[in-house]
Amino acid sequence: MKTIAVISTTGGAGRTTLAATLAVLLARRGRDVVAIDFDPQNMLGAWLGLDALAPHGIAHALTGASHAWHAHTWRNDDGVLFVPHGQVTLDEAAACDTQLAAQPQWLENAIAEIALPESGVVVIDTPRYPSRQAQQAARAADLVLCVCPPDPAACAAFVAHLPALREACGDVRVVVNRLNPAREMQRDVLAMLRAAAGGLPVAQRIHMEAALPEAFARGAWVIDEAPHTQASHDLHGLAQHVDARLPEIEASIAA
User: Fold this and answer.
1) How confident is the model at residue 246 (pLDDT cuts 50, 70, 90)?
2) Where are the domains of the chain?
């Protein structure tokens, strides 16, 4: 079993969208997939097919309101086993942060309870980094995918936090999301990102796609409704990159 943390250092980067799509595409490739929503926004379930935000989830196990976080799981039509975050008040969110600060390995220990085969994958959606949740996810992960839009502020924030991310996880790769190559500024920003990140591997570039929010509104996947678009091709490319990377991670751990 391998763990992938999907992280971003800016809001609105498309992290949750990519986490959900990656989980589904890996499941369609025959892997057993568990998707954990570790973001207090509690939105991952909306992408995976829930009609309403899940009221209970892993946050309530963290605060002690529920003893078994895995009692709140749900499986979507593609076979992804989903662990919601759950709705929390401001006081409950503060209590979660307190517990995470006191137990730095809490998420890692929770993931260890999941009974997946060796080929299984855990995909974690997180709030914006730095946060307690994102930091624990990075520490628990075998692979961190950092989602970064091609704009100067987002790239500057990513580069500033990259050393800490690399300290938390030895395998960090960037996913450039919402790319519009017709904009010259974005090409300049990508060049700046490559130089500042010192050769950090780029897992995939995902092009901007207008059909994506329309598909979400209909409860569908853009990879199904608009399979011939560049974005759909890119998303499949990301899943292929991750799928191919997992055996390499396993081999490096064994060595």
Assistant:
1) confident
2) 2-254
CATH number of 2-254: 3.40.50.300
Instruction: State residue 6 phi and psi, 5-degree precision.
Output: -105, 115
**Assigned token pair, 145:** 């995918």
> What span, in angstroms and rounded, lies between the C-alpha atoms of 63 and 153?
35
Read off the pLDDT of each residue in 107-124 and give the average, rounded to a whole number.
91
Cβ-based neighbours of 242, under 8 Å, separated by 6 or more: 4, 22, 26, 143, 145, 203
pTM of the model: 0.94
What is d(CA 208, CA 203) in angstroms, rounded to the nearest whole number? 16
Tens digit of pLDDT for each residue in 51-70?
888 888 999 888 876 667 77
Instruction: Tell me the C-alpha distance between 35 and 16, whole Å.
Output: 11
Q: What is the mean pLDDT of the chain?
A: 90
CA distance 72 to 42: 13
* Residue-level pLDDT at 199: 72
DSSP 129-151: SSSHHHHHHHHH-SEEEEEE-SS
Note the pLDDT of residue 236: 96
pLDDT at 9 over 90: yes
Q: Which amino acid is at 157?
A: A
DSSP states of 93-106? HHHHHHHHHH-TTH
Q: Which long-range contacts (CB under 8 A, 24 or more apart) does 101-110 make?
A: 101/132, 104/136, 104/139, 105/136, 105/139, 105/140, 106/62, 106/136, 107/38, 107/133, 107/136, 107/137, 107/139, 107/140, 108/136, 108/139, 108/140, 110/58, 110/61, 110/69
Q: Give the relative orientation of helices 90-102 and 132-140 as an angle to the nearest 10 degrees.
A: 40
